[in-house]
Amino acid sequence: MNRLRRDLLLVLATLPARALAGPFDRSPATPELLPVDEALRLQPVLWRAGELWLGWELAPGCYLYRDKLQIEVIEPAGLVLPPAVLPPGERLRDPHFGEVEVWRGSVLLRRPAPQAPQRLRLRYQGCAEDRVCYPPVTREVTVSAPLS
Amino acid sequence: MTTPASRRWLRPALFVLAGLVAAAAGLWFQQRTTAASAAVEAAPELVLTTLDGERRRLAEYRGQLVLVNFWATWCAPCLKEIPLLVKLQAEYAGRGLQLLGPALDDPVAVRNALPRLGIRYPVFADDREVAAAMTALGDTLGALPYSVLIDAGGRIVARKHGEFEEAELRALLEPHLP
Predict the structure, then answer these.
(1) Helix pair B166-173, B76-92: axis angle to 10 deg
(2) Which of A30, B40, B88, B109 is most buried, judged by most C-beta within 10 A?
(3) With left for phi above 0 and alpha for psi between -120 and 50, is residue B19 left, alpha or beta?
(4) Contact B120, B86 (CB under 8 A)
(5) For residue range A82-113, what is the model confidence (pLDDT) as tens digits?
(6) Could you tell me which chain A residue has the CA closest to the CA of B13?
């Protein structure tokens, strides 16, 4: 009887968790869909010693299109950045878009910029793989630079 | 061997267990359907502009089962899903299904993509209007594809981010066909 009581109590204690986790537990294979700024989390943009540092933390299952990234200087007006050499991405074959390159996980781009820009306009786009895609994102950011 | 005292304890415990099993089952079925569902509520009044500049009200489609599928030409899962939507529109048209395809996209890109995609249901493209319609129809992510099913009485009966599997969509449509 004690054993029956113990087993019953165990079942009772764990049932709510089992009910919630059960067969529809989507993690970790299919994580919850996130709003764009949580799925493609832009990190503070920094300028250090002639380089612009741009980073994203991409949620599991999410990626950023390499060829959709655009960086435009807002301030100071007229400042032109040298051409960027973007790190290669993972190649994906898409039936509609052909071969595309994407970045996943932690993305850090270091772009030569002899003069520190103050404000940038960034455009980028990404998807939660095989689930949803986010519209092109435009963000205006202030660049953090060391005090001179 | 059970004693009378332990039997007295066992019966209420079994009732509690049965109740929790029932609650868990209910929760399970509820969560199975919330992947593509919503509490029943009236669809808002919306006006969308077709590629030809025609203004169409959502209410014009009252009396039909309306599947509003928000998509874009830059959205890979949207493009993957569209052949299924085209197929089911053709199959269920006689039973009262009406697909609508507002595109969160440039109208020129949408127009150019239509022949390749074989879409024969109304398509709308006006970024601001379509974005507002998405929000009005309950979108909280701004991600595509996003689909909303509205029954013949104008009530929202399901919402879903992400592409449909064929069996899933058929199972969703069938009980709501007028």
Answers:
(1) 50
(2) B88
(3) alpha
(4) yes
(5) 888 899 999 999 888 999 999 999 999 999 99
(6) A8
CB contact under 8 A, B74 and A125: yes
Contact list, B142 vs chain A (CB under 8 Å): 35-36, 134-135
Name residue B31's amino acid.
Q
Distances (CA, A) of B167 to B87, B149, B164, B170: 13, 16, 8, 5
Tokens of A20: 């919630």
Q: Counting one residue from A and one from B, how many pairs have CB atoms under 8 Å apart?
A: 90
ipTM of the complex: 0.75
Nearest CA in chain B to A92: B76
Q: Closest Cα of chain B to A78: distance in Å?
A: 29
pLDDT in tens, A105-136: 999 999 999 999 999 999 999 999 999 999 99
Cis peptide before B83 (omega within 30 of 0): no
- Taking the CA of residue B74 and the nearest CA in chain A, the distance in Å comes to 8
Q: What is the mean pLDDT of chain B?
A: 86
CB contact under 8 A, A35 and B141: yes
pTM, 2 dp? 0.77
